[in-house]
Amino acid sequence: MASPLSKISKFLKSPQGRKLTEQAKRYAQDPRNRAKAQQMIDKLRGGKGSSGKY
Questions:
Q1: Could you count the other beta carbons within 10 Å of the beta carbon of residue 21?
Q2: Predicted TM-score (pTM) above 0.70
Q3: In angstroms, what CA-CA distances link 20 with 13, 14, 32, 34?
Q4: 3-state DSSP helix/strand/coil percent for the chain, to nearest 5?
Q5: How do residues 2-49 score in pLDDT, each as one tens digit?
Q6: How many Å apart are CA 20 and CA 3, to the nearest integer?
């Protein structure tokens, strides 16, 4: 039985996985999307600021 990480690795090497990876990279380059992602990370960690220092 393949491990979950090997399944993910295999998917990322597939054409569909490469397409989604490129889409995620483009999305991450937008400053507004980066800010949204940082806010979500802070919310999940229970932090209020965006400094990242705990």
A1: 13
A2: no
A3: 11, 10, 19, 17
A4: 75, 0, 25
A5: 899 999 999 999 999 999 999 999 998 999 998 998 999 999 998 665
A6: 21
